[in-house]
């Protein structure tokens, strides 16, 4: 029993659109589903399966690329270079302590070769490794200027 191409494209389009609800793929499945629904309409006029598949591929690729251009770029929040923080606990070389950074308490460790920093001292955040900030003493930075 052969399936009517129009019904095939309708079912494929609906399944792809539904899959986007359960397995989010940044609208890739949704665009492929919409393309299949368009091809379902075209299949009433163009009976050639090869052309239908080619049209579906072109529409899918074109709509995915086009959608990426219209959606805003998502950027991962990063720590800016050289921002200030304040130590909450003493930070010893080779160990971690706590700093107050942008209103939140963060785990922090010293840059290699740095001497201990007492509590309630200003430090400069120079990087991040996971949830741990890498800091240097503000005094050290001012002494080198």
Automatic annotation (TrEMBL):
Its main location: membrane. The chain crosses the membrane at residues 6-23, 54-71. It is a multi-pass membrane protein. Residues 84-135 form the NfeD-like C-terminal domain. It holds the Pfam family NfeD. GO terms for molecular function: peptidase activity. InterPro entries: Membrane_assoc_protease (IPR052165), NA-bd_OB-fold (IPR012340), NfeD-like_C (IPR002810). GO terms for biological process: proteolysis. Keywords: Hydrolase, Membrane, Protease, Transmembrane, Transmembrane helix. One of its GO terms (cellular component) is plasma membrane. It is found in: Membrane. This is Membrane protein implicated in regulation of membrane protease activity. The lineage of its organism: Bacteria, Bacillati, Cyanobacteriota, Cyanophyceae, Oscillatoriophycideae.
């Amino acid at each position: 029993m052969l399936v009517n191409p129009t019904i095939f494209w309708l079912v494929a389009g609906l399944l792809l659109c539904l899959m986007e609800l359960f397995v989010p793929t940044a609208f890739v499945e949704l665009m492929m589903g919409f393309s299949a629904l368009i091809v379902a309409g075209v299949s009433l006029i163009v009976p050639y399966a090869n052309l239908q598949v080619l049209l579906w591929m072109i529409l899918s690729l074109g709509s995915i690329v086009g959608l990426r251009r219209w959606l805003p770029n998502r950027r991962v929040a990063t720590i800016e270079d050289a921002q200030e923080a304040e130590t909450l606990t003493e930070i010893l070389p080779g160990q971690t302590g706590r700093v107050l950074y942008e209103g939140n308490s963060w785990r922090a460790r010293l840059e290699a070769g740095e001497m201990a920093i007492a509590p309630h001292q200003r430090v400069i955040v120079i990087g991040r490794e996971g949830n741990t900030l890498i800091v240097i003493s503000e005094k050290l930075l001012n002494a080198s200027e």
